[in-house]
Amino acid sequence: MAFSIILILVVLVFLYIKKRDNGSPKKENFNKRNKIKEEPITKIKNIFEKYNPVNLGESDLEKAIKNYNHSIYYIYKGKLESSTEYALLIGTSDEWVNLITLTRAQKPTYETYGFSVIQNRWSYGSKVLGAKEFRQFIKKNISEIKMLMTELTPIRIEKEKEKRLKIAEEEKEQKTYEEERKKEEAELKKAQKYFSKKINKNFKTVYFEYNQNKTKLESAIKEANNHYYDIDIINQTCSCPEYISENYKYDMNDVRRLCTHLNRIITQHKILKKSKDKLDQFILENLKYGILGVYKRKIGNNLDFAIILYNWSKNISVVTPKTNKDGFIMVEWKIEDNNWNPNRGGKKINEQIRVFIEKQFDI
Ligand SMILES: [Zn+2]
After folding, report:
1. Lower CB count within 10 Å: N or C terminus of the chain?
2. Structure confidence by residue, pLDDT tens digits, 261-284
3. Residue 264 Cα, ligand 1 centroid: separation in angstroms?
């Protein structure tokens, strides 16, 4: 019995040793194969150099490298079999190696292409001249490329962090901008409400006519025909939202009928006929879109003035005679500041008119 047990044990030990001896070479072979694929660090050839723009000369390739607008940390400059000079660049990406080489065009220029070392492919749409040669070269030097990419990991992480911070900042700015815009819109609505109370039966309009200059009219029509919106200069219509919601309500030749587009084309092509009325003429010369109404008044024999309200402005525009010469100037009452805007010649408003307006409109 004891002998049998010893015999069984001896057989088991023998089998175990045999198995171990059989296994070892296989494992070794497997490791060998793998090691060839991985290439140990000692086998990495140092083909890439640390990038320093100071080392660049003035060749077309070097100029293209200087114009490359991403960070470069390592660079390799080489030549294809066709003797085309090119550069491989390693930046902060752990996937893409960038290549600057000549295009396929008849007059080739240097262009940047990306090669993914993870997916082993060119970036979409790339038709790289010498693609196969580049691919083989990258494959041959993949260990060094991957090692350099790994080395750049801390910089990459830092850059990603910066990028996230920048995005957060931009989002914050966008939010502030939107808030400010909302605030401005609210202020404008408030001002418009204020205006609407003032726009009584005294607020009317100014009418315009086209002049007889056919060349100018034709060029205006031509511009209108080429416009994104459907603009008709003769019938004074436009397909823009502004016109459709507001301006259409007014008769032909009424300045209130002019949307941004009609106004711009009409004023730029100078197709308006001069008005005999000097005040009307000044208004037509300084025509702007979005007119809500025009209040015209004469004080005494010669003090003509006009108030113009616009749907886009928080200010009241006043056309008033110049204090010491002929002609008119435009001044503004700033509702926000409760004051005549000194930047727009507010100081020069005719005193009688100022008193009249402030009394009449309770401002
Ligand atoms: Zn329009």
Report:
1. N
2. 999 999 999 999 999 999 999 999
3. 9
